Amino acid sequence: MKILVAGGGNMGKTFAQGFLNSKLITREELFIFEKDSEKIKQLNDEGLGTAFSDENEYFENADIYILAVKPQDFKNIFSIIKKYITDDKIVISIMAGINMDHIKKNTGATKVVRTMPNLACQVGKGVIGYKISKDMSATEKELVENLLKTTALALEVDDEKKLDAVTAMSGSGPAYVFYFMDAMIQAGIQLGFNLQEASEIVLKTFEGSIQLLNSNNLSPREWINKVASKGGTTEVALETFEDLDVKNSIGKGILRAENRSEELSKG
């Protein structure tokens, strides 16, 4: 099995590393198409397969194409790979806003997978929502899932439109977490800590909370009840959040993100 990754940026590199680390393919079976000469040198120095910049036999020999270029560059990569598409080739796209019909129409591919990964894939803790076209066999579907699982929790959706929801929840999700962390850090500074101290306190608080959540089957709501004593400090803070409608505001923000994702997919 030979895989060609189109785009050697952060996400393309992340997938390449995941494939190699999982031993699903060897370096000799991995090719990375990249226009930036500095990135090509870096990729080759790191031993991530063969990085190159010119159209050549690597495109023809590839069994799977990973489209990891920026969405605005899709026309260029489509014009190249459509020359090499045959019925047995698989195209996996991680380009935001480019739907499956568009990919099929412009590449001639019938076996298409559209994915929505998030930033945490870079540390092997990501979430990827994906939709597989009907033309793929059970064996091919299993292969795709195994590839995606090398960097993330892979969740198949039954409707491509649900990828907009995945985008709003997990694609944008790290920014929501960082937003809340930043708010806590700024509050810590107001309470007299310096930036480093406040950052360390917040980071460890998040790390510990995640470990607690993973330690058993208690829900976030149940953990909240364990932390918040009647008449205590946590209860006062939570009551303030409720008064300010923080929970509903977060929900509204995620719904607006989903709507925006739908707009981008159509436009």
Structure description:
The protein is of the alpha/beta class and 267 residues long. The protein has two domains: 156 residues, NAD(P)-binding Rossmann-like Domain (Rossmann fold, 3-Layer(aba) Sandwich); 94 residues, ProC C-terminal domain-like fold (Orthogonal Bundle), CATH 1.10.3730. The chain is 53% helix and 14% strand. It contains twelve helices and eight strands. An eight-stranded mixed beta sheet has the order 3-2-1-4-5-6-7-8, sandwiched between helices. β1, α1 and β2 form a beta-alpha-beta unit. The longest helix is centred in the C-terminal third of the chain and has 21 residues. The chain starts with a strand and ends with a helix.
Order of helices and strands: EHEHEHEHEHEEHEHHHHHH
Distance between the termini: 35 Å
| Poorly predicted regions | none
Mean pLDDT, as a whole number?
Answer: 95
Class by alpha and beta content: alpha/beta
Number of helices: 12
Q: What is the percent of helical residues? A: 40-55%
User: Strand-residue fraction?
Assistant: 5-15%
CATH C-level class of the largest domain is Alpha Beta
- What is the fold-level CATH name, i.e. the topology of the largest domain? Rossmann fold
The count of DSSP E runs of length 2 or more, i.e. the number of strands, is 8
Q: What Rg is obtained from the alpha carbons, in whole angstroms?
A: 22 Å
